[in-house]
């Protein structure tokens, strides 16, 4: 599957939006990123996180 530039940009921004700093270390929640992506681009149904 090929992603558009808009979709790629959204994924990167979502990745950083879902980060939080715990004890000085950045932790990122990948499942939340995928959920945001699926909500924003609902026409794409084949993206899943396992």
User: How many separate structural domains?
Assistant: 1
Tally of DSSP β-strands:
2
Biggest sheet strand line-up: 1-2
Parts with pLDDT < 50 across at least 5 consecutive residues = none
Mean pLDDT: 86
Strand-residue proportion:
15-25%
Helix and strand element order: HEEH
Rg calc? 12 Å
In whole angstroms, the N-to-C terminal distance is 17 Å
Largest sheet descriptor: 2 strands, antiparallel
Portion of residues within helices? 40-55%
What does this structure look like?
This protein has one domain. By secondary structure, it is of the alpha+beta class. β1 and β2 form a beta hairpin.
SSE blueprint and pairings:
Elements: H1 5-17, E1 19-22, E2 25-28, H2 30-40
Antiparallel strand pairs: 1-2
Helix pairs in contact: 1-2
Which labels suit this protein?
single chain, two-stranded antiparallel ribbon, 16% strand, alpha+beta
Task: Quickly describe the structure.
The chain is 48% helix and 16% strand.
């Amino acid at each position: 599957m090929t992603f558009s530039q808009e979709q790629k940009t959204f994924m990167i921004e979502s990745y950083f939006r879902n980060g939080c700093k715990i004890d000085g270390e950045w932790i990122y929640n990948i499942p939340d990123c995928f959920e945001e992506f699926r909500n924003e681009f609902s026409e794409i149904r084949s993206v899943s996180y396992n």
